Amino acid sequence: MTDKVTHKGGCHCGNVRFELDARPDLEAKSCNCSICSMTGFVHYFASKDEFRVTKGADNLAEYTFNTDTAIHMFCKTCGVKAFYVPRSHPDGWSVNTNCIDMATVSTLIIGEFDGANWEANIANLRGEE
Fold it and tell me: Over the stretch 63-90, which tens digit does the pLDDT of each residue have?
């Protein structure tokens, strides 16, 4: 098993930056729910201990909808959502792999999640099936 590295990333304008401790080989999920398909978000799930906002926490706007469980955060300057607290993992983070600086990523494997039918598929995403 490969040791974790510290990945860095952020929004388009650079006003929001983050660090993520994870393996260099990342497995992520693309989702077809309404918000992910509109924003192109590709999820890498991290625990609270593995993720840190290093710059611009005060430059984030929040948006919630439906159950108000997920806390979507967007850069107030450029509008990019680099990470958020997901409904599926409310005690952690979902990091948009499109916002990770690829210098520390060896491979990125992207699977699919049918978020349009969230309730029927969430157990699979959480590894409960």
Answer: 999 888 899 999 999 999 999 999 988 9
